[in-house]
Amino acid sequence: MKIFLSSDMEGTAGVVDWEQCIGDGPEATAGRQLLLDEVNAAIDGALAGGGTEIVVNDSHSQMRNLPPRALAGQASYISGRHKPLYMMQGLDRSFGAVLFISYHGSIGAPAGLSHTYNPRAVAEVRLNGTVTGEAGINALVAAHYAVPVVLVTGDRCACDETAALLPGVHTAVVKEPVSRLAAHSLHPVRACTLIREVAEKAVATAAQAAPPPLGPVATLEISVRTTDIAEAATWVRGVDRAGPRELVISGDDLLSVYRSFCAAILLTRTIAEAV
Question: Which CATH class is domain 2-114+134-208?
Answer without folding.
Answer: alpha beta
